[in-house]
Each structure stands twice: as structure tokens, then as C-alpha cells.
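Quick start: read one record
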Amino acid sequence: MSDEPIPAEVDSEEEIPEEHPRYQDLVTRHRIEAGVEKGITHLQGMHAEGRGSAFDYLLGERTIESAREAERAAAAVLLLAERPVISVNGNVAALAPRETVELAEAVGAAIEVNLFNRTPKRMNAIADHLRAHGARDVLGLSADARIPGLNHERAKVDAEGIYAADVVVVPLEDGDRAEALSKLGKTEIVIDLNPLSRSPQAAEIPIVDNLIRALPNVTDHARELRGSSETELQAIVDAFDAEAALADAEQVIRSGLR
């Protein structure tokens, strides 16, 4: 892959040439930087995005077949869910606000803001940002319940949101919180570019893909599957093998290293 230069100062992603061989990576970098400037993304989010970018480079910055299967299974799980919730942190809000809203609408999910570096100002900024991209109700501001086993700010959730959910989409998740949600009996859909991370390892549906590709893919599958019966949806879920998907992603990444 080439590393062709782009202008040193980019005010909007429209200035990034789409024909650039690393277009998606440049877009994500710009969105994270803009998120920090808006007070949506914490500075630590830049480091997290950098790690993800390295794994995406090794994946060829593409959605591999096992990830496509995971995204279809995720859509089926969400359509079967009674109380699905999409958890949003600062990076998710900066990278894919509209895509998050579109997925929520496609599967009837609630959206809840959940932060490790939590302040009222950041929480409200993210909620406003999501509303500006079409979200109607944004949960997480009341935080009237806690996830057992966690003693940091990400333990704070809404009683009628993540705490009551049966299925939770947790993109770019902390490993300890993913494990705690699993212990609560939640079905987790994790989007993470590192197949060896604790988060996808704890998930029923681990999606090893870039968030900005994964969310639209799940949405497309949900729209396609919307008229399917519960039996048909359950068959898709049952056919998905999480361990095999993670092993395949790891193999692709190791091939990229060579």
C-alpha cells in the first residue's frame, strides 16, 4: 500500500481524495481529530484508534469474509432481540454517528452513551452530536444503575438501557467491561480490529472489522433480513462460529505481517 501525502491541514474529510489508497484510514484519523476538537473524543482515543489502524492495515483495510458472516449474524441477533442497545463511546460518536443511528433505526435499538473518561460536559456533547445526526432518544445521561464487578465510570449505565438489555452492541469496548456484561447474561456484539483482545473473545458475535465498514454492513443485512422468520434468523445465528471467525481474522493478520 502506498502512503501518498495529503494536504497537511484538512478542514473536512471531503478534502481527502477518495482515490487515495488509504482513504478510509485518513478519514478515521480526521474524524478522531475533529472529535477531540469538539470535546467528544478523549485524547486517549487517538491512541486507541492508532492501534486499530495498525490491525486494519494488516487486514488490507477491507472486510474479510469471516467478518461479513459475523455482520450477518449480528443483524440476525439484533432482529431477534427484545431490548437491543447500542453502546456509544467517544470514538464511536466521532467515527460513525450517522451509521450508529441508522443501525438503531433498522433494528429498533436504543442508543446509550457510556464513557470511561466521563464528565457531564462530554456526555452532553456526545448526546447532542448524536441528535444532530438523527438520534431521537439518547440514553446514558441519568446512569441510575451499575454493572456489577466494575469500579470505574464505565460501570454507570441506565436502568432502562444497557442494564435491562438482552443484546448489546459494544464497539471499541474495554475488555473488563465486555467480560462484566457477559457475566450479566447479555448477548454481546463486539466490533474490534484486534481478534486477540478480551472484548471480542468475550462476545457471542465478534466482528473483526473497521467500525466505519462494520456498522453499515450490519445495517444492510438487517434491512435484507427484516422479513425473515424467527426460525430463519435463529438458523443464521446458530450457523455462526465465533471461534472460527476469530481464528480466521488472526490468520489474515498474520499473513499481512509476512
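The chain has eleven helices and eight strands.
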